[in-house]
Design brief:
Elements: E1 2-8, E2 12-18, E3 20-24, E4 29-32, E5 35-40, E6 50-57, H1 64-72, H2 74-83, E7 87-94, E8 116-117, E9 120-121, E10 126-128, H3 134-142, H4 154-163, E11 176-182, H5 217-228, E12 238-244, H6 248-253, H7 265-273, E13 278-280, H8 287-301, E14 304-305, E15 316-319, E16 322-324, E17 332-335, E18 340-343, E19 354-359
Parallel strand pairs: 6-7, 6-11, 11-12, 12-13
Antiparallel strand pairs: 1-2, 2-5, 3-4, 5-19, 7-10, 8-9, 14-18, 15-16, 15-19, 17-18
Helix pairs in contact: 2-8, 5-7
Length: about 375
């Protein structure tokens, strides 16, 4: 029998106890015993359970009521991060942060994280659990008004903000990156078209989604893979969610509707490809939407990868020595593509909890 102890970088301790007993070296026959893994989330660790959340707030002419809806319901989003003692960062950028680029205004102030607007500023462009009056600070940061560009380019704006050196303290190595977009118009990230280019090119309409120069959603997945150090699509260290116009009913009710281009098809595509959440911007209250988004982030950021392939039927999970049921509601599920255990609902462990996973490993194939 062999006992192995190892420490994984980032403060996640894994104790793997397993035995491989040779019955007969000549016929290569083995008896494979059970394995156990114990995960300890330590509040003092550097890497584990860090979550960096970037909000991309559309600040165009029609957005004030939607920003206010976000502010009114922010408690539905942040409560679990606080109660479970997550180590989180919150920051806000806008849908016109792309204007920091040399092709446009060449003004880096556009891509700096926002800590308010006009004469009202919080002094906290990056919010964490220690920020005084955390919720009111976020509300001030997020209420970005309606005087921004009407040429919404949320994708190239979050890229500009993440690449801005002044924001470098926001995303930490090993942290899960969550991007949440609030916008009533689809993304129009086009690196070769100036702002408001429908005035500059004869016959080219506003937000021409047939434009071959439009950057693909896959190009932003490639950017985020590289930015977060993701190498396995099944274990992405980020996701993108959106509160946007999702259907023609919302489109028709919107005072600033623009025929066919307002529905957030690109937001939906990027969210679907990164395990994000989409929600209706026309909802009377965002409480349910924000709760679903935060739950999704918490579940993905507490995903535990196993170091051996288990027999899924044999997996048992305990948190602080209490058995957790196998359930997609308030329990755990096994994700075969990532070889990991994913917690759900009230079963998501708090920071500092002890998680024990036991299972029978699959027998060698040769």
């Amino acid at each position: 029998m062999r006992m192995q102890n190892r420490k994984i970088q980032g403060g996640l301790w894994v104790l793997g106890l397993f035995a491989l007993a040779a019955c007969d070296k000549t016929d290569r026959s083995y008896s494979l015993l059970g394995a156990a893994q114990t995960f300890q989330q330590n509040p003092s660790t550097v890497e584990q359970n860090k979550v960096d959340i970037l909000w991309v707030v559309d600040n165009s002419g029609s957005m004030k009521p939607f920003q206010q809806n976000l502010a009114n319901n922010f408690n539905s989003f942040i409560t679990n991060f606080v109660s479970k003692n997550f180590d989180f960062h919150l920051a806000v950028t806008t849908s016109d942060s792309y204007l920091a680029g040399a092709f446009w205004n060449n003004n880096p102030n556009y891509s700096h994280f926002r800590d308010g607007i006009g004469t009202t500023h919080t002094g906290y462009p990056i919010i964490d659990s220690a920020t005084p009056n955390l919720q009111s600070v976020f509300v001030t940061n997020a209420l970005q008004g309606d005087q921004g560009s009407g040429d919404e380019r949320a994708f190239s704006s979050f890229r500009a903000a993440l690449q801005d050196p002044s924001n470098s303290a926001f995303h930490r190595a090993g942290a899960f990156l969550a991007i949440i977009i609030l916008s009533d118009e689809d993304d129009f990230s086009d690196p070769k078209r100036p702002e408001y280019s429908w005035f500059l090119r004869n016959g080219v309409p506003d937000h021409d989604y047939a434009d071959p120069n439009l950057e693909t959603t896959d190009s932003y997945i490639q950017f985020l893979d590289q930015f977060t150090g993701t190498t396995d699509p099944a274990l992405r260290h980020y996701n993108v969610s959106a509160v946007a116009v999702l259907d023609s009913v919302c489109q028709a009710s919107h005072v600033a509707q623009s025929a066919t281009t307002i529905i957030g098809q690109r937001y939906v595509d990027l969210a679907n490809k990164t395990n994000g959440v989409t929600a209706d911007i026309c909802s009377a209250t965002y409480a349910d939407a924000l709760n679903k988004i935060q739950q999704n982030i918490i579940e993905l950021s507490t995903q535990f990868q196993l170091d051996r392939q288990p027999n899924p039927a044999s997996i048992q999970v305990m948190v602080n020595n209490v058995v957790v049921p196998n359930s997609p509601t308030n329990g755990w599920t096994y994700v075969a593509s990532a070889n990991s255990v994913l917690f759900h609902g009230t079963a998501v462990p708090s920071q500092g909890a002890s998680i024990t996973v036991t299972f029978d490993p699959l027998a060698p194939t040769n």
